[in-house]
């Protein structure tokens, strides 16, 4: 039986005052309320440090956890019942966890009130979606107008080997030594390692304003608790806005070994950069891992060349077992981004010039019907094929770790994907290699595929 603790805390940041209507909506347990979303995301934040990627199992373990927003004369407070004991030290909540809890509340309230139910944001149009992403980031205080380009996005798997994790720390260390900051999905594994490495490097360089930005969305954060090093946390309403936030605020991307979630992110990124409007925009990308991960990137590289063509290969560089060279390559690439944006009078803090096609912005709901209808063939523009492949991998991620996806698989069986024969064979080889390498679930749990091909 896990240890639990009940307490009342004051949130940090800009949440001193909420309206009675906002408080009531956060308490409301109906379909129109926000209480269940707040409860699931808050529990994941409080569960920080416990390795799990099953949001439903977490909710079952802490079925008696409750959070209530109390409105008082001096502002709101949060009443927590049966919260995980690991979030506290001597009865006091760890400050970083309290900041993350406040960020969750801040973004849930802001997105619901100012984005999803406000007519100035047309979330069916590309420019409206980009505008919404900008406003969510600005409201969170993430856009730093006075900072030189320095933010390196790090993607990779949460289910990685110890060697891969240590390597990601080494890469983060060499990025940090070169005055580069880190942005990740804020979970464990390859998202935690670079932040730890950069944190040590920043301390050695006496860099006291290092940024460790985590961008997540409710379904992911409910499954993967944010790592404690994150000092800026932003919750996007869905995975598409989360991915757009990464490419808008980041100045370069390092990709570590992962599974279907990492493949989804790679396809998203390359699909955008392969759009003709983005051909001349510099955006450094490095795939990297220790020597034992070379085969992983070889398979990814072959799959990308087969599906997206040689032009895709020109947009990234593969560096194996050389953290220092990754740091040097990314420093040079970020400097090129800075030069380009100065030349074109672009903002450093948000990449407005990048054309993100609507197919990469509209939310994809992975149902059995929508997964079966995906167009997985090469008789379409390459950036559209990348968008459909990304949706396929997004559905597999949902079936692996998201509560609604797990429930759908249990009720209706695995998702079925259809593709042209050659692509089907390549897709099958890639997914089979992920399973064989243990990249679908955290170690210790047997993987049962949530998809079939045919």
TrEMBL record:
It catalyses: AMP + H2O = D-ribose 5-phosphate + adenine. InterPro entries: LOG_fam (IPR031100), LOG_family_nucleotidases (IPR052341), PpnN (IPR049788), PpnN-like_sf (IPR037153), PpnN_C (IPR021826), PpnN_N (IPR027820). Residues 8-115 form the Pyrimidine/purine nucleotide 5'-monophosphate nucleosidase N-terminal domain. It is an enzyme of class 3 (hydrolase). SUPFAM superfamilies: MCP/YpsA-like. Its EC number is 3.2.2.4. Residues 335-453 form the Pyrimidine/purine nucleotide 5'-monophosphate nucleosidase C-terminal domain. GO terms for cellular component: cytosol. One of its GO terms (molecular function) is AMP nucleosidase activity. NCBIfam families: Nsidase_PpnN. This is AMP nucleosidase.
């Amino acid at each position: 039986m896990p240890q639990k603790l009940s307490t009342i805390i004051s949130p940090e940041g800009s949440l001193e005052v909420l309206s009675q209507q906002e408080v009531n909506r956060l308490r409301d347990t109906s379909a129109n309320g926000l209480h269940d979303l707040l409860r699931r995301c808050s529990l994941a934040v409080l569960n920080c440090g416990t390795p799990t990627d099953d949001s439903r199992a977490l909710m079952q373990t802490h079925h008696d956890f409750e959070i209530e927003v109390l409105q008082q004369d001096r502002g709101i407070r949060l009443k927590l019942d049966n919260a995980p004991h690991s979030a506290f030290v001597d009865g006091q909540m760890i400050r970083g966890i309290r900041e993350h809890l406040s960020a969750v509340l801040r973004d849930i309230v802001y997105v619901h009130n100012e984005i999803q139910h406000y007519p100035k944001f047309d979330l069916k149009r590309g420019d409206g979606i980009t505008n919404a992403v900008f406003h969510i980031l600005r409201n969170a205080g993430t856009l730093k107008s006075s900072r030189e380009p320095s933010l390196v996005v790090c993607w990779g798997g949460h289910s990685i080997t110890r060697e891969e994790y240590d390597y990601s720390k080494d890469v983060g260390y060499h990025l940090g030594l070169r005055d580069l900051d880190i942005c990740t999905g804020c979970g464990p594994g390859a998202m935690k390692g670079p932040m730890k490495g950069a944190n040590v490097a920043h301390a050695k360089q006496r860099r006291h304003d290092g940024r460790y930005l985590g961008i997540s969305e409710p379904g992911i954060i409910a499954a993967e608790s944010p790592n404690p090093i994150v000092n800026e946390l932003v919750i996007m309403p869905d995975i598409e806005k989360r991915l757009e936030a990464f490419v808008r605020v980041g100045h370069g991307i390092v990709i570590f070994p992962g599974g279907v979630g990492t493949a989804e992110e790679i396809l998203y990124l390359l699909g955008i950069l392969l759009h003709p409007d983005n051909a001349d925009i510099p955006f450094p990308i490095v795939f990297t891992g220790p020597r034992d991960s070379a085969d992983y990137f070889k398979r990814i590289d072959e799959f990308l060349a087969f599906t997206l063509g040689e032009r895709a290969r020109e947009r990234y560089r593969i560096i194996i077992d050389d953290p220092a060279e990754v740091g040097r390559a990314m420093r040079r690439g970020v400097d090129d981004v800075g030069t380009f944006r100065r030349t074109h009078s672009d903002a450093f803090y948000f990449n407005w010039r990048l054309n993100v096609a609507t197919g990469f912005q509209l939310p994809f709901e992975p149902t059995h019907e929508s997964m079966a209808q995906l167009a997985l063939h090469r008789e379409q523009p390459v950036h559209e094929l990348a968008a459909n492949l990304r949706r396929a991998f997004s559905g597999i991620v949902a079936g692996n770790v998201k509560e609604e996806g797990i429930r759908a698989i249990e009720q209706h069986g695995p998702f079925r994907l259809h593709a042209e024969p050659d692509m089907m064979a390549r897709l099958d080889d890639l997914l089979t290699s992920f399973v064989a390498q243990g990249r679908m679930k955290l170690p210790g749990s047997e993987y049962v595929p949530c998809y079939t091909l045919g």
